């Protein structure tokens, strides 16, 4: 009996590990991963809008910052540009979001649009897939009287990482694809 249990366990583990070692993404799986990546970018867009909104309470903004940071690979940076300077400054994600929360405007509107893949997922030597999603961000800052003080539109490229991970559920090893966001690079900034 013991040898049968061992044999069945060995077959199950082998089956799960074989499924896990498949590093190629099927077209159906790729479509699901693309949808998840775009959904994470849309979530980030909502989070950025909430964090930048001066009506959002401090405690809620901090909670949203924590949620936004969870979308990113550790060490990821966000580029910040301005019509008034040529250089682009890069900040770690949390620092960027905290700076956004403290902007010196009475009201801030941030809108992301034209969210789309510009480069297909490409397999890297370590088995990770990397792609790029482009977004356009319209930023508007207002004074106490509601007058528009500053406005720009920035094209940004967001690096997307898709990695094979594993988790244990009910004592079984289950493999899955996880999507994480990486650096957000400024491509161009214009008046509109």
Walk me through this protein's architecture:
By secondary structure, the protein is of the alpha+beta class. The chain has one domain (about 25-190): Nuclear Transport Factor 2, Chain: A (Roll). It contains 4 helices and 6 strands. It has helices spanning about 1-20, 25-50, 60-70, 95-100; strands at about 75-80, 85-90, 105-125, 130-140, 150-170, 170-190. A 4-stranded antiparallel β-sheet has the order 3-4-5-6. Strands 1-2 form a two-stranded antiparallel sheet. A hairpin with a 5-residue loop joins strand 3 and strand 4. Helix 3 (about 60-70) packs antiparallel against helix 4. It is globular. The chain starts with a helix and ends with a strand. Mean pLDDT is about 85; it is low at about 1-20.
Secondary-structure map with pairings?
Layout: H1 2-21, H2 27-52, H3 58-69, E1 77-82, E2 85-92, H4 93-101, E3 107-123, E4 129-142, E5 148-169, E6 172-190
Antiparallel strand pairs: 1-2, 3-4, 4-5, 5-6
Assembly state of the chains shown: single chain
Q: What percentage of residues falls in helices of 4 or more residues? A: 25-40%
CATH architecture identity? Roll
Tell me the strand percentage band: 35-45%
| Overall body shape | globular
Structure characteristics:
single chain, alpha+beta, Nuclear Transport Factor 2, Chain: A, four-stranded antiparallel sheet, disordered N terminus
Put the structure in a nutshell.
The protein contains 4 helices and 6 strands; from the N terminus they run αααββαββββ.
């Amino acid at each position: 009996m013991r040898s049968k249990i061992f044999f069945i366990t060995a077959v199950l583990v082998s089956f799960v590990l074989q499924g896990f070692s498949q590093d190629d993404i099927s077209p159906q799986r790729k479509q699901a991963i693309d949808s998840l990546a775009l959904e994470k970018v849309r979530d980030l867009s909502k989070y950025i809008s909430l964090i930048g909104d001066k009506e959002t309470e401090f405690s809620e903004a901090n909670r949203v910052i924590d949620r936004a940071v969870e979308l990113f690979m550790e060490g990821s940076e966000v580029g910040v540009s301005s019509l008034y300077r040529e250089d682009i400054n890069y900040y770690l994600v949390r620092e960027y979001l905290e700076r956004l929360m403290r902007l010196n405007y009475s009201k801030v509107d941030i809108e992301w649009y034209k969210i789309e893949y510009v480069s297909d997922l490409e397999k890297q030597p370590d088995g990770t897939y990397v792609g790029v999603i482009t977004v356009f961000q319209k930023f508007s800052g207002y004074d106490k009287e509601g007058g528009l003080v500053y406005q720009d539109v920035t094209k940004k490229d967001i690096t997307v990482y898709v990695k094979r991970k594993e988790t244990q559920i009910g004592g079984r090893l289950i493999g899955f694809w996880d999507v994480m966001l990486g650096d957000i690079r400024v491509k161009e900034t214009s008046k509109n």
